[in-house]
Amino acid sequence: MRKKIAAGNWKMNLSPKEAQALTSEVITMAQAEYTGHAEVIFAPPFPYLSMVHHLMKEAKGFHLAAQTLHEAESGAYTGETSAAMIVAVGATHVLIGHSERRQYFGEGNDLLAKKVDQALKHGLVPVYCLGETLEEREAGETLSVNREQLAGGLFHLSAEDFSKVILAYEPVWAIGTGKTASPEQAQEVHAFLRAEVRAQYGEEIAENCTILYGGSVKPDNAKELFSNPDIDGGLVGGASLKSRDFTEILKALP
Ligand code: PEP
């Protein structure tokens, strides 16, 4: 069944104390105030994964994600983190292909496809991010860019493996800029992605595919975005660092 999800990407933010407080506050507020069925994913910085896991492991519907992983099993890759290490500290999910990884670390579709394989090999759920830049949107390339990223990173997968993946459409021009895609712009791309998945893997897998929207999701725009038929929740950056804001975003999901 298609899941509803509020995912928080904390990026390279927060002190250990702040990360601890944020985790505990969101869990407490969600348990007291949220009556829906959506799941929560926290994606803290690597050094906090263990601590956040410890704080959230009893909380039903809460999952832990790493923000990236290395595609190799192990070896001489100074500074990198393997899938097995991520699993060992309690994570069940991993972000792959966030636009900041694509933009600042040169991660392209071929490499991302290997990372997806490595995540799946270790039982991690890939949250595969994709989205166009402002330049690409203005050149009328939005759909072709998203198709290329979707197919390039994922369409080598078997139907069984693809059905484990979560997609996150994140227009690059809306990330951290305060500019949100309008509900119509977001829905258009989500419906397109689902249609592409349908063409590749069939109706059932497309219908069950969770597609999150990311790009300046806030408490005051979440409900309108999430009310679209192909938007199944949010991948939230800035607003996920504030417990009240993130909880309100979760509460916008059924
Ligand atoms: C993100 O980085 O995934 C993101 C969506 O950031 P923000 O919500 O701050 O735009």
Detail the topology: elements first, then pairings.
Elements: E1 5-9, H1 16-33, E2 39-43, H2 49-56, E3 62-66, H3 83-88, E4 93-96, H4 99-104, H5 109-121, E5 125-130, H6 134-138, H7 142-154, H8 159-162, E6 166-169, H9 183-201, H10 203-208, E7 211-214, H11 219-226, E8 233-236, H12 243-251
Parallel strand pairs: 1-2, 1-8, 2-3, 3-4, 4-5, 5-6, 6-7, 7-8
> In the CATH hierarchy, what is the architecture at level 2?
Alpha-Beta Barrel
Along the chain, the helix and strand elements come as: EHEHEHEHHEHHHEHHEHEH
Largest sheet: 8 strands, parallel, barrel
What is the fold-level CATH name, i.e. the topology?
TIM Barrel
What level of helicity do the residues show? 40-55%
Q: What is the CATH homology-level superfamily? A: Aldolase class I
